[in-house]
Specification:
By secondary structure, this protein is an alpha/beta fold. Helix content is 54%, strand content 18%. It contains 11 helices and 8 strands. Helix 1 packs parallel to helix 3. The N and C termini lie far apart (42 Å). The structure holds SN-glycerol-3-phosphate (G3P).
Length: 213
Amino acid sequence: MRIFIDSANIDEIREIHSLGFLDGVTTNPTLVAREGRDYHQLISEICNLVEGPVSAEVIAMDYQGMMREARLLAAIHPNVVVKIPLTEDGLRAISSLRKEGINTNATLIFSCNQAILAARAGASYVSPFIGRVDDISYDGVALLKDLIEILDQYLLDTEVIAASIRHPMHVTAAALAGSHICTVPYAVIKQMIKHPLTDAGIERFMNDWKRVF
Ligand code: G3P
C-alpha cells in the first residue's frame, strides 16, 4: 500500500517527505483554505517537492466550471490529479477529462455504487471517506473492503485511496483490506511512527551502554 499525506501545509509535507516513504499528496478545499495562500502556487510548490500524484480539487460544481478548473489545475504540473466530487456533473467531467488524458480522483465517495460509476466513467482513483462513514455510525472499513473486492473482481484499473483517516488503526485496516493507497493526515503519520516499547527500548539500551562505556 502506498502512503500519501492528506495535507496542504508545505512544512508538514516537507517534513514527512524527508522520512523517505511518501508516495503522493491529497488536498481538499478545507485543507487549502486553512493555508490562506494562492491555490495554484501552493499546488505547484507541492508538486515540486514530492515526486508522485498530487490531488487538487475543483471548486466549481457545474460541468463547464469543473472542466475549466480541471484544465487549469492539470496545466500546473504533470503530476496533478484533479479531484472531482461524485455528482452527475462530476461523472460527466471525469469521463471528458479521461478522454483529454487528465487523471482524476473521484472524491466524497460513500458507497460502492458511487465507486463503480466513477471507475466506469474513467476515474484514475476513487476516494472512499472511511472516517466520515464511521462518524455517522456506519462501518467505513467494511465499505472500503467491499469496494476493493468489487473493483478487483472486474479488473477495473481504478486505484482506491482510503481517505478521511482518523487514527492509525484505519491505516492498518486499509492495508489489510488491500487498498492501493492510504492518504494519511500529518498527525496520524506521527502517531504511526511512535510506539511506547520503542521509546522504552531505546532508553534501556542507552542506559546499559552508558553504565559500561
Ligand atoms: O482529503 C479528503 C479526506 O481525507 C478528508 O478527511 O478528516 O475531513 O473527513 P476528513
